[in-house]
Amino acid sequence: MKYVSTRGRAPVLSFEEAMLTGLARDGGLYVPQSIPQMPKAEIAALAGLSYEEVAFRVMRPFMDAQMTDTRLGEMIERAYGGFEHAARAPLTQLGPNHFLAELFHGPTLAFKDFAMQLIGQLFQDAMKRRGERITIVGATSGDTGSAAIEAFRGLDNVECFILFPQGRVSEVQRRQMTTPDEANVHALALDGDFDDCQAAVKAMFNDFDFRDRVGLTAVNSINWARVLAQVVYFFTSAVALGAPHRPVSFTVPTGNFGDIFAGYIARSMGLPIERLVVATNRNDILHRTLQSGRHEKQGVSSTISPSMDIEVSSNFERALFMAYDRDGAAISRLMEELSRDGGFPVSQGALEALREIYGSGRASEEETGATIRAIHAETGETLCPHSAVGAKVAREHLGATPMITLATAHPAKFPDAVAAATGARPPLPKRMADLYDRPERLTAIANDLGAIESLIEERIAK
Ligand SMILES: *Cc1c(COP(=O)(O)O)cnc(C)c1O
Question: Where in the sequence is N6-(pyridoxal phosphate)lysine found (predicted)?
């Protein structure tokens, strides 16, 4: 499979090259040149298979010919072997025709582990074969960083730097980033918000000298390999509820649009997904865009679902690229308009294409808390605030088709918000019960590109 940039002016790359490159050199994101199709009979044959077997069948067609089946199979086994639940992404039921896909049984308790654990394996494999070293730089609103540090700690030939917004991640998220003591992982607390972190990472990628000097790679959700790994649980969940013979819909708590875009890929492969519903918190730029047809920044505010406190939703560019019939020049112009004017109108044709697939909704802070409380009372299930945003919006979209809400994090990752809603602090799973006792290690840094780049160069020279 070959990969092209959403802005149409970067080299066409293989799967491995696209994975190692992260952000394209024209500022765009890599997408597959075409979407492999999975016929109905092949989808039906996924019923009853293990998560790992489904992962193999779904991802294989997107990879390069030189990837052997044995190597891929082994990497998938290692990636998901550390999950606490044998089903990896088990389904539970929240109400009539409303299901929850629990994506929080990985080592850092959020769905990011599905992609990051696999990417760790894929990167190490590629670096070993190429005899190269790389520097991974990521921005995080909390969960990506902890998942990345967990996946890359101690790996050979990889240095991993994570920028997180100082004071804006939960204590559990911070401790998951600052307590691993391996020398190749670095938690950097930036004086700014998540968009500042993301902008700093983008700027490092656009500094081509620096980028080449340190062998820079991104593992943010702009990295295609991450999106691909997330396609798998759309298949396992839908098949468990009767796909391909019965369609399903998904509601996805959304920030950077990576998770829901993976659902779009599953749908494009042939999985019968009726609706993909974007659930946003008060930072509702995507909901407003789908409602009004104008994509417009208004500023980010902090919420109890911090992993969704995002305004520049990077993967939305991939959705736009598809909605604009893969017109890279048009996407380039929109992205220029966004950074110059803070917004752009979506063309009528593209808006219709988006609305045909994506629904949307938002949850205020009060509604999020009320949903945690209500679902706890009705079912005994404790949702994290992100999953609660999803459940609230999903309930507004229930119909004849089964609805699956993605539970993106474990409630114990956000104990204060959950305790405020239910009165009870959700305990951490046993294997990380000592998280609050482990020593922390982090570096505070100004929101200044030069300072960040120098720090990275100093650290990798050691
Ligand atoms: C990252 C994250 C999200 C948002 O996912 P995107 O792929 O960025 O849209 C939602 N919930 C949690 C818990 C997350 O960690």
Answer: 112
Residue 222 has pLDDT above 90, yes or no: no
Please state the domain count of the chain: 1
CA of 399 to the centre of ligand 1 (A): 25
How many angstroms separate the CA atoms of 458 and 445, rounded? Answer: 14
| CA-angle at 318, arms to 159 and 50, nearest 5° | 70
Q: Is 328 in the pocket of ligand 1 (CB under 6 A)?
A: no
Q: Among the atoms of ligand 1, which is closest to the Cα of residue 143?
A: 15
- At 394-419, the pLDDT tens digits run 999 999 999 999 999 999 999 999 99
Q: Nearest to residue 193, comparing CAs of 296, 300, 272?
A: 300
State the residue range of the domain holding 337. 91-105+224-422
Cβ-based neighbour number of residue 336 at 10 Å: 13
Examine residue 1 and state whether it is found in any structural domain, yes or no.
no
For residues 177 and 145, the answer to whether their CB atoms sit within 8 Å is yes
d(CA 124, CA 272) in angstroms, rounded, equals: 35
Q: Is 167 a member of any domain?
A: no
Give the CATH number, domain containing residue 293.
Answer: 3.40.50.1100
- Among 141, 164, 234, 386, the mutation site with the greatest number of ligand 1 atoms within 8 A of its Cβ is 386
> Is residue 141, in this structure, part of any structural domain at all?
no
